Amino acid sequence: MQGVGPGTVLGGRYAVTLRTSEGTHHERWRATDHTLERDVVLVCFAARSSVAAAALDAARRAAGIEDPRLVRVLDVGTDQAVGFVVEEPLTGAVPLSHLLQNGGLAPDEVRRLTGEAATALDKASHRGLHHLALTPSSLLRMPDGAVKVRGLATEAALTDTDGLSDERASRADAVGLVKLAYAGLTGRWPMVAVDDGLIPAGRPVGLEPAPTIVGGVAAPSEIAVGVPNDLDLICRMTLGEGGRGPVSPGDLALQIAPWPAHQATSDGATGIGLHGQSGRGSSGATRVMPAVAAGSGSAAVVGAAAGSASRGREPSGSQASTVAFDRVSAGRAGGSAATGTQAGTGVGAPGTGAGTEVTEGAGDHAKRLSDGVVAAAAAAGGVAGAIGDRVGSFARAAADKAAARAAERRAAHDDFDGEEIGLDDALDEAPTTRLEPPLPVMHGESPEAPSGAQARIALAIVGLLVVVALVIGIQNVAKIGQHDGPATAVTVTKTRAPSATQAPSTTQPPAPTTTQPPPAAPVSITGGTGFDPQDGTESDQNVAKVFDGNPGSGWQSRWYGTPNFNGNKPGVGVLLDLNAPTSVKEVVLELPKAQDVTVYATDSGSTSSLDGAQMVGSATDASGTVSIKPSGPLRPASKIIVFVTKAAPAESGNRYRAQVSEVTVR
């Protein structure tokens, strides 16, 4: 990249030393922070490129998420024509793409890596951030086994793939995690589009592509050994037709939980390290090898085996049997036979010498028989090699599975150190000692009968209780029909009607009282979503908290570097649905911190435009309970917009958010 190289100092403190990777719009460099005297990683890109502004904004927002599984963003800035993002150094970290160079990982390790990454991305999604560009290079494993996810939000911005809604972005991250699990199990990358092409197949990542079938890719269990049923089912449902599978990283984490807390130490499904049993004379483990070097055909292997057979001995127990695939043409059959003969005699020479010497009388016959066997074996090996080379990746995977299962059975048999004995012999050698009968479940002795004195005491207690009950009952019966005391006299006063001779009384009617009209009844809010003039969405998942009746909770936007939302938009807010069209008379807001806010009434469902909206009122530098009333009557409207035009400080001095705790409409 122009303007960046070893020795370049960016931001007056970051000295560039070594480039580690290069992308379409960016480069990744190692650097040294001279101010704090520490190593850092710089992601550099042209400040005038089309993705620079989005990448810088995404990095600032990603820096606000505290999670040990996400690579921390330490600083963001520009220096002349170069924009840069400073990340923490990951000393000793190994990306998944490097871990898979020798085949798949253990299923438990795949489950752990995927689950930790899914949990981290689920936490980020609650803050409105997504990755959207997951590849094996995005997932790293530290020397202590910790999991790190690199490039949250920034990678998508740098590749210009961040234009998805929250729901679609969560689905895209879930699919990306399933692809990582598929690669971890098989060592191959599933380049397949999902959800009818809405989530593209992506670009090559440096791994062998997974074999494709009608409707997707082959299931992991068709390629690797020991794939758990749940992981296999998730991969088949997500990467096949129908748009099924997890809808978010959190959904995937729930489906694959639980996973081990520490790094798995066993070998993976396709890279099982099977070592021969030392100290045993049985045959060693079977190893599935790739094609042998040119110049030594399959006939050489078969010839060596034939040579050993002609000497009348088996290979040593420590020597492993090898299954090899090679291309042998029909024109090389003779040469292969010769090579096989040489291999047969050459292998036999270091043994007992039987490969080069024969006894008189039967020597010629034995030699001709040996040469015939070697030639036939060489020809058969050549044909088998030619056929084996035409077998695709499925055949090689099948050979891997067969070899691994055979080795497991052999290892299980070899681990038995006891003496094998038949059932009849075991019964004959069983001792004739008579076994004792089992003890009864209940004790055989019955409890002793109570003595006469004990019986009399018990009867006396029972009789006393009966007498007390009778006395209480008799007293209650005697009170039936009696009054608790004398009746209270009631005095009745009769009022005489006024006669005709009496002057009518003139009474003044009560003075009318002047009362204020009751306040307007609150209007129910039935739903809502975020409002952002730039992209139409702003922390939609928290909007319901502004009308849940709890002032302790509320909605807050993503964080920005300035109170005017980085100068990129006039403001953000929430769009709330009313239960019926209402002529708004008052809107009461609960604002936790001082902000500038304007309220509109509208019938439009747009989450990014104020066209046609009626302004109810506004407040400047307002906090606490804020009442906003219109200056005149308004037309009935079915929605209101609470639009914050100046944000309030949030977690620190350089982070600002729009914050609304509660909204009441009258």
Q: Can you give me a brief rundown of this structure?
A:
This protein has 666 residues and is an alpha+beta fold. The protein has helices at residues 52-62, 96-99, 107-125, 154-158, 166-186, 229-238, 249-256, 298-310, 333-348, 363-389, 393-414, 423-428, 452-478; strands spanning 9-10, 14-22, 26-33, 38-46, 73-79, 82-87, 94-95, 139-141, 147-149, 188-189, 208-209, 212-213, 216-217, 287-288, 322-323, 525-531, 555-556, 572-582, 587-602, 614-628, 637-646, 648-649, 656-657, 659-660, 662-665.
Query: Hey, roughly how much beta strand do the residues contain?
Result: 15-25%
Helix content: 25-40%
Which word captures the global form?
flat
- State the helix count: 13
Mean pLDDT: 76
Spans of at least 5 consecutive residues whose pLDDT stays below 50 are: 267-367, 386-392, 442-446, 497-507
Structural class comes to alpha+beta
**Biggest sheet: strands side by side, in what order?**
1-2-3-4-6-5
- Please state the CA-atom Rg, rounded to the nearest Å: 43 Å
Query: What's the β-strand tally?
Result: 25
Report the major sheet. Answer: 6 strands, antiparallel
Straight-line N-to-C gap: 59 Å
